Amino acid sequence: MFKTRVTEMLGIKHPIICGGMNAITRAEFVAAVANAGAFSILASASLETPEALRKEIRKTKSLTDKPFGVNLSLFPSVRPIPNDEFVEVIVEEGVKAVETSGVRAPAEYVPRLREGKVLIIHKAATVRHALKGQEVGADMITIVGIENGGATGVEDVSTLVLVPILTREAKLPVIAGGGFADGRGLVAALALGAEAIIMGTRFMATKECPIHPNFKKWLLEATERDTVLVMRSIKNTHRALRSKTTEKLLEMEARGATLEEMLPIIGHDAYVKTALEGDFEAGLAMAGQAVGLINDIPTVKELVDRIMAEAEAVRQRLNKLAA
Fold it and tell me: Is residue 158 part of a domain?
């Protein structure tokens, strides 16, 4: 048992979080993570209406009595995201926490979320943006490094460096993301000063995750060398599995392609075709360097239990070294 401020505030058994992943973290998957004693976050950006979010929250509640959260995307979007209305639904439904992620701090949503007693977890890829989240009223901060799958920020700093800097500067509990997949990583994050880890890529390779079976097979076969950074040209760097699509995108960026030209590859519809339908030539397959640590497809519970057992074994080994 590893008890931290994050486990206490969120009311969870283990300091492990499954991050919000667009179109992937839906009710059944989120509930499976929650039932395993970890925390999971519904993705709202792929839901078109507040009522669709309400339905997904209620479906999750029907599958678990454990706490879970909802992500609010603050990234630029071609389709307007009704975050104001989403916040109202989140408050009305009594959701435990909101994860905010994107290009700005969630200042405009803090008063209503505070009023509704919803905890705010602000995710950032730089120390200064993380501290901005603290400044505007977040309750916890997530920091993700260059190892991360999906959005990585633009400064290319590793989690190993970001976490101790942020924990030195921040007063709030810190959640570490980027490169985590097992109990060794959890203990390392705690040693750096974090109070939980957040994982995406490792949770994607579980039986309950709704990504296409061929995507899971791809995750199994990939190594730590098989990811690439794309979308640097539009200052929205993301890490994805290397593919013909990423090669095409990098060629487009090299010749100065516009956002409009890239949208058929980087847009939401293309992502859904890749992640959920297994069409790897349609869009990007987001994944982090932790893909190199994946060699099986367990259930969510098996994964969480294994991580905690590994972490305890590491703790015991370190105790012997200190004797």
Answer: yes
Residue 207: other Cβ atoms inside 10 A: 13
Mean pLDDT computed over 18-31: 96
Q: How many domains are there within the chain?
A: 1
Residues spanned by the domain of 68? 5-211+290-322
- For residues 12-28, give the mean pLDDT: 96
What is the CATH number for 12?
3.20.20.70
pLDDT tens sequence across 162-220: 999 999 999 999 999 999 999 999 999 999 999 999 999 999 999 999 999 999 999 99
Is the model's pLDDT at 233 over the cut of 80? yes
- pLDDT higher than 90, residue 322: no
Among candidate residues 127, 79, 73, 141, the one with its CA nearest the CA of residue 101: 73
For residue 269 the two structure tokens come to 């519809």
* pTM of the full structure: 0.96
Is residue 60 one of the residues assigned to a domain?
Answer: yes
Span 271-287, average pLDDT:
94
